[in-house]
Specification:
The chain is an alpha+beta fold and about 400 residues long. Helices cover about 35% and strands about 25% of the residues. Strands 3, 7, 8, 12, 13, 14, 15 and 16 form an 8-stranded mixed sheet that branches. It has a 3-stranded antiparallel sheet with strand order 5-4-6, with no helix packed on it. It is globular, with a radius of gyration of 26 Å. About 5% of the residues have low confidence.
């Protein structure tokens, strides 16, 4: 298939410069680089594949063996941005850049404008209008605009990765006398393990970091809820565990974290910098009131009758590079589960934003108390909210 039509390379490259200089693209380095890469590769007749793009853009962070869909996500956003450009900014004499679904070569087409001709309206057209109005109403009710908690994240230039905090485990002696994999709540990283061994030198050579990490019920349940929520908007995203996440991705994508505060790793630094009044410990949060400087401790409670109280933090953060983050922190899995159900409910979010006078652009950190019996019958109560 001839992707260049009758346009010479100089005119195509001039069109490329015009697009990437437009305000829709100027602030998105990823879209600019990707469009330039695809257009140039097409003009040079290179056979561009997903792996080629992934390696060029993400290097060691791209792993095609693990069904990595970063490339598809970025190209999806690029298509949307091109469509928006041609709807709002393009002139009739411009060349249209099109990237067919499932392909990475660019097709170059002439700009076409629909011609409107005045004709008598046949009877069947009135019937079609009725059907279209009904269809539009159905679309409105089933494809409602996304709520304010997620809106800016879903509409920016970045792809999104959901990160689940997996538990760090160690290998060594177990209670039965053999060797196996165990979990210690106070050892949540290799640095923690090294510190513990330095205090217990007799364990040197007996215990080591395990390659086996695991999740609690929070991960599969929250994965299901967020997939259903974003599926209504056909919004693509990646899923990864924190042990595989790289700090190199910090400025290149949106991030939504679910997990315990002690499993966050370097992500904890972002929260502390944005909201320094909070301190994160095992199964508890401490907050220093910015005005009174008084410290309040919110500690999880588990009773013998299986009643559990979990203090759950939800945070919305905008990064200087334009990408965004959401945090759902809970040491007991039902806390994050309840919070996600709340923030994917449009009516709940609308009430929450109105009650606290929030706009969709506001960053905040909110604390909730979640109570349940046998991990059922959850009840979530709002405690406090801090703006950045």
């Amino acid at each position: 298939m001839d992707t260049q039509m009758n346009f010479d390379n100089d005119r195509i490259l001039a069109q490329l410069d015009k697009i990437i200089s437009d305000k829709l693209f100027a602030r998105s380095k990823i879209n600019v680089r990707l469009l330039d890469f695809l257009v140039t590769s097409t003009l040079e007749n290179r056979d561009v594949k997903e792996m080629t793009i992934g390696t060029a853009f993400f290097g060691a962070n791209y792993d095609p063996v693990k069904s990595d869909n970063k490339v598809r996500v970025y190209v999806y956003h690029l298509r949307k941005k091109l469509d928006e450009y041609y709807r709002t900014s393009a002139q009739p004499d411009e060349i249209v850049f099109q990237i067919a679904k499932g392909q990475y070569q660019v097709q170059f087409e002439p700009f076409k404008k629909l011609e409107v001709r005045k004709r008598p309206i046949p009877r069947w057209a009135y019937f079609m209008v009725v059907l279209m109005v009904g269809g539009a109403m159905t679309f409105f009710f089933y494809q409602r605009p996304v709520n304010d908690f997620w809106k800016t994240l879903m509409h920016n230039e970045f792809s999104t990765t959901v990160v689940f905090g997996d538990y760090f485990t160690i290998e060594g002696p177990i209670t039965t006398g053999g060797s196996g994999v165990t979990r210690d709540y106070e050892i949540n990283s290799e640095q923690d393990l090294r510190t513990w061994i330095s205090k217990n030198p007799e364990q040197t050579g007996k215990v080591r970091a395990s390659r086996h990490h695991y999740f609690n019920w929070m991960a599969p349940y929250c994965s299901k809820v967020i997939t259903e929520f974003w599926g209504k908007s056909d919004y693509p995203f990646d899923i990864i565990q924190i042990s595989e996440w790289s700090v190199a991705q910090l400025e290149n994508e949106n991030l939504v974290y679910f997990g315990q505060s002690k499993s966050m790793g370097v992500l904890k630094n972002i929260l502390v910098e944005k909201f320094p009044q909070y301190t994160y410990k095992s199964q508890e949060f401490e907050r220093v009131d910015p005005k009174t400087k008084e410290t309040t401790v919110y500690k999880d409670v588990i009773t013998y009758d299986d009643k559990m109280t979990d203090y759950t933090v939800v945070a919305k953060i905008s990064m200087p590079t334009g990408n965004e983050m959401r945090f759902f922190l809970s040491d007991q899995d039902y806390g994050a589960i309840s919070a996600l159900e709340y923030f994917t409910n449009d009516e709940d979010v609308a009430t929450f934003y109105e009650r606290h006078g929030l706009s969709k652009a506001d960053d905040f950190i909110a604390l909730f108390e979640v109570t349940g019996w046998l991990r059922k019958s959850y009840e979530m109560k709002f405690i406090l909210l801090d703006r950045s």
